[in-house]
Amino acid sequence: MKALVVIDPQNDFCPGGALAVAEGDSIMQPINEMMGAFDLVILTQDWHPQGHSSFASSHGGAAPFSLTDMPYGPQVLWPDHCIQGSDGAAFHPALDTVRADAVIRKGSNPAVDSYSAFFENDKATATGLAGLLRDRGCEDLTMVGLATDYCVAWSALDGVANGFRVEVRLPACRAINLDGSLDKSLADMRAAGVTLMA
Ligand code: VGL
Ligand code: ZN
Q1: 106: closest CA among 87, 88, 129, 86?
Q2: Are 82 and 106 in contact (CB under 8 A)?
Q3: pLDDT of 145-180, one tens digit each?
Q4: Residue of 113, 151, 158, 173 marked catalytic
Q5: How far is 21 from 1, CA to CA, in rounded Å?
Q6: Is 0.85 topped by the overall pTM?
């Protein structure tokens, strides 16, 4: 059984959004066209409360895209984005959400960021995705979405670490690319055994 895991295809990660990824909107149609080839389609949704600790605005005068230290490690401070219930947190209107079997929301804990579809960044709290996939008999995961170097990469790495076979289709992903983060994420995924499809 094969699952398509679509990472954070949300307005705030598309042009005009609060944490816009260049060409983020261009992946929606190709993703729609892939859906029919999978037994299960999962969407993830970055879903932060106001004042989330990953927001630069929650750290006094900190600049967006600067780094801070959290109890669980270094953390990039982001512009406010994907606030629960906001238009920015909604799925991009060009994405066909009707075919989705489940939506996994992440990032609701105000104290911990959550890039991965499987675990919060402290690696302690699971989202339930691994159990859902196992219960549905899915061992092969194809991942696409936003952003390649953060939420897609962290999800792919956690997928492999949890015993799934993971392929990332790069033409249906777009990256933030902060200080070489795209190249680093590709190298990390390759080293972990993620199949990168050009
Ligand atoms: C993401 C930064 C902050 C992502 C989410 O979806 O890649 N990046 N929150
Ligand atoms: Zn976020």
Answers
A1: 129
A2: no
A3: 999 999 999 999 999 999 999 999 999 999 999 999
A4: 151
A5: 31
A6: yes
Mind listing the pLDDT tens digit for each residue in 69-116? 999 999 999 999 999 999 999 999 999 999 999 999 999 999 999 999
Rounded to the nearest integer, the mean pLDDT of the chain is 97
For ligand 1, atom 4, which residue shows the shortest CA distance? Answer: 151
42 lines ligand 1 (CB under 6 A): no
pLDDT at 61 over 90: no
Q: Is the peptide bond before 147 cis (omega within 30 degrees of 0)?
A: yes
Q: How far apart are CA 192 and CA 44, in angstroms?
A: 22
- The token pair at 161 is 């670490």
